[in-house]
Amino acid sequence: MNDVTETPTSTAVPARPTREQVHAAPKVLLHDHLDGGLRPQTIVELAAEIGHELPAPDAESLGRWFAESADSGSLVRYLETFDHTVAVMQNGPAIARVARECVEDLAADGVVYAEVRYAPEQHVANGMTLDEVVAAVQEGFDAGMAAAGGRIVVRQLLTAMRHQARSMEIAELAIAWRDRGVAGFDIAGAEAGFPPTRHLDAFEYLQRENAHFTIHAGEAFGLPSIWEAIQWCGADRLGHGVRIADDITVADDGSVELGRLAAYVRDKRIPLEMCPSSNIQTGAASSFAEHPIGLLTDLRFRVTVNTDNRLMSQTSMTKEMFGLVEAFGYTLEDLRWFTINAMKSAFLPFDERLKIIDEVVKPGYAALIAG
After folding, report:
1. Residue 323 has pLDDT above 90, yes or no
2. Which of 65, 169, 174, 298 is most solvent-facing, going by the fewest CB within 10 Å?
């Protein structure tokens, strides 16, 4: 699994793939939030069961409200959307349903492997234990994978909130469940004022346990957040990492100079979990065409493509990848490169990653390219 041999090949100028081809292509997703991907109809039904008041009365108008709130440019209004999704995920059956539907929706979109993250600490308001929350998610994932008939593998990433003080507890939970469906650990939440080093004890514990973890960094805050995540905390991957472009200078003549941090990230092949639609909504990029993913791909960083919050961004892996096709003229070979990058970077054992690449990803793309 050598990066040098898996490079984009769009210089051969083959035809751009259609949306139908992108949908049919096998896709790998590393950055997707469980509480950011609920079906609007499910929210309506679960809210009615518990008497939770929603900002819209039916699924169609609620879906519009989520989209408008996420696109409003107001961080306060964007974060308010999660108040409603988290509110309806406070008991085992509801959490299991959301998890099952998540797998069903990803499988229907052609995703063959996914790591879905959520913060267990946000789902204990009604008395569930952290362990019960993880068990409910796993129940739903197992049901979804069974219904998909082996077409998708899904693993959990347990997230700690960076503004809270439960990261060690969540890290220990991830270790307790790592042979039962949990692939790794993450921290999320506001970057500014809450550096990853506040949770250094959790990251050092995970390293001692030979565990995998990713860190949200370089999305709303700049290079210091990325530097701390990598050099102090030892992150295996960067959640978003879009601001690494701030350490790259492109001259008027097109020549490129990488700063020390950007060069290190590229040299070490540290995966970047890039989420174009979400980055546009949060102001980290102005459009698909202006997203740093184009430059980072040209420079052969370990770029991956992801959804972040499918409900809030009204997106899917097909939509994200096809948006890149339209913006940069990417081909099926390029999408194959993104997909293999992601599968190489997954928190699965090496032999399992290799099997999915060799038996699912490569044959799937080969059939599309040949056909």
Report:
1. yes
2. 298
